Amino acid sequence: xxxxxxxxxxxxxxxGENATMNCSYKTSINNLQxxxxxSGRGLVHLILIRxxxxxKHSGRLRVTLDTSKKSSSLLITASRAADTASYFCATxxxxxxxxxxxxxxxxxx
Amino acid sequence: GAVVSQHPSRVICKxxxxxxxxxxxxxxxxxxxxxxxxxxKKSLMLMATSNEGxxxxxxxxxxxDKFLINHASLTLSxxxxxxxxxxxxxxxxxxxxxxxxxxxxxxxSGTRLTVV
Lengths: 109, 116
What we know:
Helix content of chain B: under 10%
Structural class of chain B: mainly beta
Number of strands of chain B: 11
Distance between the termini of chain A: 36 Å
Largest sheet of chain A: 6 strands, mixed
Oligomer: heterodimer
Strand content of chain B: over 45%
């Protein structure tokens, strides 16, 4: 499979805690993107990090990229119940998208 | 498990013709499938949500008559690009929700459409 792996597959935390999700991929990439998907809804683009970047912030989101390890992490700080969703990483290699298997995050109020 | 097969992976068509892209869930039933479009160096854009046995829900700005979606069975959704034009050239990808799977969604490998 060309898809990456995400870890953990499921994560349950209390509101206010931080959530960290990891993504590993297999090919050389142009960029890596994180998406969110609420149950029954389509993907929402969260953040893009280019292959020459190591860290990027957007609001409560922090993404890191380690191209030597072919891995990325998404940190959501001060989580909220509304953050409950599935989170996917996707890598762009050439002109092909490869998606990770996703992490299901549950934030308990 | 939870494999989504998308076909074809690449297609080149002449301007004015129609192209059909298939999205199949191979080992599970998918009541909902999603169709996305990706422009060069951009992120994916949700085009429509395909619901088995009912009409698709299109996102704002997506032409229903141009991008026909049919979800006639629990394992197959099709996207037909009608009267294709060069500006329709793009990468199209589908995903399906897979009930019972904790991470819930599986993606097809995408279709590269080139309209000449």
